[in-house]
Design a protein that fits this description.
Helix content: 25-40%
Low-confidence stretches: 4-10, 13-38
Mean pLDDT: 85
GO molecular function, one term: rRNA (pseudouridine) methyltransferase activity
Pfam family, one: EMG1
CATH superfamily: SPOUT methyltransferase, trefoil knot domain
Protein name: Ribosomal rna small subunit methyltransferase nep1
GO cellular component, one term: small-subunit processome
Number of helices: 8
InterPro entries: Alpha/beta_knot_MTases, Rbsml_bgen_MeTrfase_EMG1/NEP1, tRNA_m1G_MTases_N
Structural class: alpha/beta
Number of domains: 1
Shape: globular
Radius of gyration: 19 Å
CATH class: Alpha Beta
CATH architecture: 3-Layer(aba) Sandwich
Distance between the termini: 61 Å
CATH topology: Alpha/beta knot
Number of strands: 10
Length: 248
């Protein structure tokens, strides 16, 4: 039997998550925009299996994490260390701090959550620096399906329909990064050999452990003999692409 407090602290029900997916197909004012730069090729990031799980804790909804909600998660027979939203936050900060981002070569950012939701982040938005503000933004997104720019109608983040491949440009080459791949490469040399007129899509895992979905990728490579964090993978990708495109 759950106590009264535990009854209040319920993880967002599965049926609510299903409703979110159903609403995606009917939401007005959320067009699907294909990223396609007519003058220069660009880069697209897809982050797989990000942990962004909202739950009613006490009287407020919060994004679950192991530091603040370990006891809550254990009471619900969940492993607290499977709930790591700081991983995707750190990876997005790394993207936003790159020269690729600042020079407009990042065409789009997609985040696929462990719950199966697909998020599109516009490449010109400012990622909140603090973890608390980031979680507040993501919570607003999951509750309202989009986040608008302050004082404007423009949507900076929005939930979009799966699969992610329908939102990618036709002239793209999709590369998955996986520690378990038998194809180990030096990333600078690998991207240097690719055609300059294609858009490169990098698929990076945003989870604490496990594998990404590689079914839709054109190639899967390992860039280190050691497991790397999502943020470290982004850093290596950025450095390799900046060298390829001669961005100083």
């Amino acid at each position: 039997m759950l106590t009264e407090q535990e009854e209040k602290e319920k993880i967002l029900p599965t049926e609510d998550k299903m409703n979110i997916q159903e609403v995606l197909h009917e939401l007005p004012g959320i067009p699907i925009i294909r990223s396609n730069n007519p003058t220069k090729s660009g880069i697209i990031f897809i982050f797989e299996r990000a942990s962004l799980v909202p739950a009613l804790v006490g009287k407020t909804y919060q994004i679950l994490n192991p530091d603040d909600h370990a006891n809550f998660l254990r009471r619900h027979k969940k492993n607290p260390y499977d709930y790591r939203p700081e991983i995707i936050h750190q990876a997005l900060l790394e993207v936003a701090d790159s020269k690729l981002y600042k020079t407009g070569r990042v065409q789009a950012i997609y985040v696929k959550t462990d719950e199966g939701l697909l998020i599109k982040i516009e490449p010109h938005m400012l990622i909140p620096k603090t973890y608390r503000r980031f979680c507040a933004m993501m919570l607003e997104l999951l509750q309202k399906f989009s986040v608008k720019a302050m004082g404007k109608r423009e949507k900076l983040l929005r939930l979009i329909a799966n699969p992610v491949t329908q939102h990618l440009p036709t002239n793209c080459y999709k590369i998955g990064l996986s520690y378990s791949s038998e194809k180990r490469v030096r990333l600078k040399d690998y991207v240097g050999d690719l055609n300059d007129d294609v858009n490169l899509v990098f698929v990076v895992g945003a989870m604490a452990h496990g594998k990404i979905n590689c079914e839709y990728t054109d190639d899967v490579v390992s860039v280190s003999e050691f497991p790397l964090s999502a943020a470290c993978c982004v850093r290596r990708i950025s450095c390799a692409m900046e060298k390829k495109w001669k961005i100083l």
